[in-house]
Amino acid sequence: MAIRKDVAIVLRELSKKSGIHEGDLSKRFHQIKSRGTTPGPKDIDWIDDTSGDVYDGPSGKIGVYIGQRVQ
Amino acid sequence: MISSAIKESNPNCAECFASLRLYGDALIPAQITRLFQVEPSDSAAKGEMSKSPSGKSRQASTGRWIMGTDGKLSSSSLEKHIEWILDRLASIDIKAKDLPGVESADIFCYWNSASGHGGPQFSPHLMSRLAQNGLTLGLDIYFASGDF
């Protein structure tokens, strides 16, 4: 497991592993980064190459890949 | 002669959509929803908690209200998606930054290439409407459609 910023490659790897279309994964990544503290097109976001969790930075706050609202 | 008209579709686009994103510490999502009469794609008040499937929690650092065209329009013309958002704003006759609790606002777009080249195109009319609303336009571009 690693948190990486080469997002395009990680999305391709996750797509192969999960069988989920790469386009669907990229769309999900886009939607999650919108919630972060660095939500712009010029910001670098990171992704966990195993879980797909999205990060604002290599050790920054997490944006959830498949989010679940809690109380 | 080169046409400057915006076509209804863009064969270089596999999928696209646009989102109006509103942020602010004092933003109350339900208040914005009431004004627009449209449910947001995502929203949270400042301090609200969310949790990942792995159990990690995250607190919203500021309030947010995001309204996307994903699932509402199927056009491959990104201009059409942005127009849809601007029409919603026009219908309530309030500029995005004047909405209650809003400190920053933009339109952020997803664009996934179908061909590995090309891109979205915007008319002067659309850009004028964006400027009148004080909205920054951001493009988040992917080449995730497989082999080109």
Give a short overview.
By secondary structure, chain A is of the alpha+beta class. Chain A has helices at 7-18, 22-33; strands at 3-4, 46-48, 54-55, 62-63, 68-69. In chain A, 34% of the residues lie in helices and 15% in strands.
Supply database-style keywords.
heterodimer; A: 71 residues; alpha+beta; four-stranded antiparallel beta sheet; 2 helices; 5 strands; 15% strand; disordered C terminus; B: 148 residues; five-stranded mixed beta sheet; two-stranded antiparallel ribbon; 3 helices; globular
**Number of helical runs of chain A?**
2
Q: What Rg of chain A, in angstroms, do the CA atoms define?
A: 11 Å
Indicate the radius of gyration of chain B in whole angstroms. 17 Å
Q: What's the overall average pLDDT of chain B, rounded?
A: 90
Order of helices and strands of chain A: EHHEEEE
Topology of helices and strands:
The complex is a heterodimer of chains A (71) and B (148).
Chain A: E1 3-4, H1 7-18, H2 22-33, E2 46-48, E3 54-55, E4 62-63, E5 68-69
Antiparallel strand pairs in A: 1-2, 2-3, 3-4
Chain B: E1 13-24, H1 29-36, E2 42-44, E3 49-51, E4 57-59, E5 63-68, H2 78-92, E6 104-113, H3 124-132, E7 136-142
Parallel strand pairs in B: 6-7
Antiparallel strand pairs in B: 1-5, 1-6, 2-5, 3-4
Description:
The complex is a heterodimer of chains A (71) and B (148). Chain A has one domain. Helix content of chain A is 34%, strand content 15%. Chain A has 2 helices and 5 strands; from the N terminus they run βααββββ. Chain B has one domain (16-47, 59-142). Chain B is 22% helix and 30% strand. Chain B has a 5-stranded mixed β-sheet, with helices on one face. A two-stranded antiparallel ribbon of chain B has the order 3-4. Chains A and B meet through helix 1, helix 2, strand 4 and strand 5 of A and strand 1, strand 3, strand 5, strand 6 and strand 7 of B.
